[in-house]
Structure formats: C-alpha cells, structure tokens
Amino acid sequence: MTKLTALLFTLLLTLSCEERSAPNFDSNEVSLLLLDEKGRNLFDPKSPSTLSLNDIRVYYIDNKGQRILQNHTAQDKQHLAIDTFKETASAILKVRINMDDANQEFAKTLINIHPYGEIDISATTQMLPLSSPLGAGGSIVYENLHVNAVRIASNNNYKPVQLQLKRD
C-alpha cells in the first residue's frame, strides 16, 4: 500500500510540475492596465487621476441586450478588484466577466468607468474536457477575447490588457 501511495504522490507531483499550456484566460477574469491620457496608471495612488472601485460599474449583457449590474457597491469583491501585476508591480483592475454565451455569439460585459466611459469586453467560452488534469475538467475558460472590438492575441493571455482612456 505504501508503494502505491508513493507512486500516486509522484504522479501528482509530476503532473503539477509539467509545463502545461494555461487556459487562454484565468477562468473568468480579465486583467486590465488602465492609463489616463498622459499614460499614468489610473490605479496608482500617486497619480492625480487615481480611480477607486466606486468609480466603476460592471454590467453583464443578457441575451435580450439588457444591462444587468454586477457590482452594487465597492465592497462587492466578487466581480471587481484592484490587484498588482507581479512582473511590473503595476496596479491593475481584475474583472470577472460574463461567462454565458449560450444564447449569443459572444458573452458580453460592459465596464463603465467614471469619467472615462465604457470598455466593451466580448468573449467566447469553452468547457475543458472532464479528463483535464488536476481537477480542471468541466471548468469554463475563455477561448477568444475582444476588448473594445480588438481581439487580444492568445500569446498575451497572462498579461493585463493595456488601455489608454480619455475622459468623456
């Protein structure tokens, strides 16, 4: 029995250490690096144009084209968070985006950022096969991502999408 346990442990360790291709995007999150007109990070506390979560509304678009508000308060951490991108130590916005593309070509999310206007995110989804390693089977991941109608290349899947915003 001990040999079987050691074999299973070795197999799990090997699978977890293998270099695997990651899903196109982190399950249901998209990271955004948002800059103002002068190229300053909008979530950098030292920037004069710093934003907070109170300035942002996330809407999912349903199959009837209706906007459904997802973050009712700044305390709603389920759909929106400010985080740090480790490679550059830049403050980024992480947004949980719409996963329901069943009744339309793309799952659609609108992010309204006061006073900068809206960011339009569209994505197609794919369910991983149940046989995927390490319990990822059945997870829904993004296959194609478009931000403001521009397709984001899959080789940039681990990097935040950089957007320069202009005030309305």
Explain this structure.
This protein is mainly beta and 168 residues long. The protein has one domain (24-152). It is built from 1 helix and 10 strands, in the order αββββββββββ. The chain has one helix spanning 2-17; strands spanning 29-35, 56-61, 67-69, 80-85, 90-96, 107-113, 117-127, 140-147, 150-151, 161-164. It has a 6-stranded antiparallel beta sheet with strand order 3-2-6-7-8-9, with no helix packed on it. Strands 4-5-1-10 form a 4-stranded mixed beta sheet, with no helix packed on it. Strand 8 and strand 9 form a beta hairpin. The radius of gyration is 19 Å and the shape is globular. The N and C termini lie far apart (67 Å).
Entry keywords:
168 residues, mainly beta, 36% strand, 10 strands, 10% helix, disordered N terminus
- Give the biggest sheet: 6 strands, antiparallel
Output the number of helix runs.
1
List SSEs in N-to-C order.
HEEEEEEEEEE
Low-confidence stretches: 3-25
Terminal Cα separation, in Å?
67 Å
> What Rg is obtained from the alpha carbons, in whole angstroms?
19 Å
Q: Provide the domain count.
A: 1
Helix and strand arrangement:
Blueprint: H1 2-17, E1 29-35, E2 56-61, E3 67-69, E4 80-85, E5 90-96, E6 107-113, E7 117-127, E8 140-147, E9 150-151, E10 161-164
Parallel strand pairs: 1-10
Antiparallel strand pairs: 1-5, 2-3, 2-6, 4-5, 6-7, 7-8, 8-9
